[in-house]
Specification:
- The complex is a heterodimer of chains A (416) and B (76).
- Chain A is an alpha+beta fold.
- Chain A contains nine helices and 22 strands.
- In chain A, a hairpin with a 5-residue loop joins strand 13 (228-232) and strand 14.
- Chain A is extended.
- Chain B is mainly beta and 76 residues long.
- Chain B has a six-stranded antiparallel sheet, with no helix packed on it.
- In chain B, a hairpin with a 3-residue loop joins strand 1 (13-17) and strand 2.
- The longest helix of chain B has 4 residues, at 5-8.
- Classes of the chains: A alpha+beta (416), B mainly beta (76).
- The interface between A and B is medium-sized, with 17 and 15 residues.
- Strand 2 of chain A pairs antiparallel with strand 5 of chain B, so a sheet runs across the interface.
């Protein structure tokens, strides 16, 4: 802010030289004139000071016998003075300033980050369709409300943060992983149930009654830790039942089936070197294509690069241009060698395993085999993993017996 | 009540952050300024800062900020 104020007032760079330029600086200090960027320069010093102090320099120059020279002038007053005869230029600048200010009141870009299960485009489309459109006023956007709506629309989202920086709406999300639903302390009574079939290999119970044991096979939907805690008396009769939010970590051994295949013959693109470019300018909803008539290419790729105009990092403007390029190619029929095919199948399998690893899944066995028959490369088998398989499922509490029944039993006891 | 000497005697205050930045307060005048040495007069003594690439970032009636590679500070 201080820098902007100084720029608005105007400042100059001065060179002082002579017999005692230090005395000149001390006099400035004495007169309480603030100077900055002081440097030794050609037998004296150069420094910057505000424009309003320039008149006082002459008295000091006479007193110290130094020479002074203005090296540069900076700031708004000098800028306006320089362009005083170019009224339309200044008017244009002013209008530009106003336009930039008005544009800064709206959202011109939505940026989504942190997705894994969902895609950025999916979240962005939902936001634009239902909640915030590009071009909407920033003051109309309630980030807290938007966060709440996104959490409701996308159940896999465990945490979402929305904020507006410049003219950009930033949405940062974190997703829960399948079968690893976290359990809040605030939740009501619930069981921990199995998300998939498998065998229990590790189990830690923090609250609730464990129902399964290590080594036991379980099916999807089986209760692993029950939210029902029965308290027994000396005769093994239930005297009280508590309902709690079951909590614990259950690691299960599960099996993922993997199947993949691809043809040994494939088409490779051999680019002919012929290409044609086109430009598209987009200003808000107005779109204009600029290109010569398209050449007749029988096979071509289209490569599009979209550039949004912005000032700085976050001040997006409602203007964008797209460079579209058509590149002609000739399809050439090729065949994978056995080695290439196996390498390709292996890399696709590795991608699948990497995806599993990202879900905090530990891979224990990889029983996938790759074989080539009838011109097709097959990769099939299973992958044995250890993963968290418990998730919370709300518990339905049975209604307590009707008061009449209680009274009846009381009477019968009395009669006995 | 204890009052610090910069208030009672007008002692010069030198504040240094690492070897790259220094602030001086309660000085009277600048005696010498080169890229290697800055000498400032205080009320009772002189402060001499030596180093390389020395530069006065700003200089006002209250304080001055010095940047560069500071190697020595001497009170003369």
């Amino acid at each position: 802010m201080g820098k902007i104020r100084t720029w608005a007032k105007g400042y100059i760079e001065i060179h002082v030289w002579g017999s005692r330029p230090e005395r000149f600086l001390s006099l400035l200090n004495h007169k309480q004139i603030h100077i900055w960027e002081v440097e030794p320069y050609e037998g004296g010093y150069r420094f910057k000071l505000e424009r309003c102090h320039v008149r006082e320099l002459d008295t000091m120059r006479k007193k110290t016998g130094c020479n002074i020279k203005v090296l540069n002038k900076y700031g708004l007053p000098f800028f306006l003075f320089r362009y005083r005869k170019r009224k339309f230029f200044v008017l244009g600048l002013l209008l530009c300033g106003i336009l930039i200010y008005v544009c800064s009141l709206f959202i011109w870009d939505i940026n989504v980050g942190g997705t894994y299960f969902y895609t950025d485009e999916q979240i962005k489309t939902r936001i634009e369709e239902a909640y915030v459109t590009v071009g909407q006023r920033k003051s109309q956007v309630d980030c807290n409300w938007l966060e709440e709506q996104l959490r409701q629309d996308f159940p896999e989202i465990s945490w979402v943060s929305c904020d507006i920086i410049g003219t950009q709406l930033n949405v940062e999300i974190k997703e829960t992983l399948e079968g690893t639903e976290t359990i809040n302390e605030d939740t009501g009574p619930q069981d921990i149930v199995a998300a998939k079939d498998g065998v229990v290999v590790e189990m830690i119970t923090r609250s609730g009654t464990p129902v399964v044991k290590i080594g036991q096979s379980i099916a999807k939907g089986d209760i692993l830790i029950s939210g029902v805690i029965n308290i027994y008396d000396d005769f093994d009769e239930v005297i009280e039942t508590d309902y709690v939010a079951a909590d614990g970590d259950i690691i299960g051994e599960t099996v993922y089936q993997y199947e993949d295949s691809f043809e040994m013959q494939y088409y490779e693109k051999e680019y002919t070197g012929n290409h044609q470019s086109a430009f598209t300018i987009e200003i808000m909803n107005w779109v204009q294509d600029i290109h010569l008539p398209w050449k007749e290419f029988s096979n071509y790729d289209v490569v599009e690069e979209n550039h949004k105009l912005r000032l700085g990092h976050t001040y997006y403007l409602p203007v964008s241009f797209t460079v579209k390029e058509r590149r002609e190619y000739t399809p050439v029929l090729c065949t994978y060698t056995e080695e290439e095919a196996k390498e390709r199948a292996q890399s696709r399998l590795q991608r699948f395993l990497d995806t599993l690893s990202e879900k905090e899944v530990e891979i224990m066995e990889n029983n996938v085999t790759i074989e080539i028959r009838d011109g097709v490369c097959y990769a099939a088998g299973n992958v044995v993993v250890w993963e968290r398989i418990g998730y919370g499922r709300p518990l339905s509490i049975p209604e307590p017996p009707a008061p009449d029944a209680e009274t009846g039993s009381g009477e019968s006891q009395e009669s006995l | 009540m204890q009052v610090t000497s910069d208030l009672t005697e007008g002692a010069t205050i030198a504040r240094i952050h690492g070897t790259r930045e220094a602030w001086l307060e309660n000085y009277q005048s600048l005696l010498e300024y080169t890229n290697e040495r800055i000498r400032v007069a205080g009320k009772h003594n002189e402060v001499c800062i030596e180093g390389s690439g020395m530069r006065i970032e700003y200089y006002s009636a209250i304080d001055m900020k010095i940047t560069g590679i500071i190697q020595k500070i001497e009170f003369v």
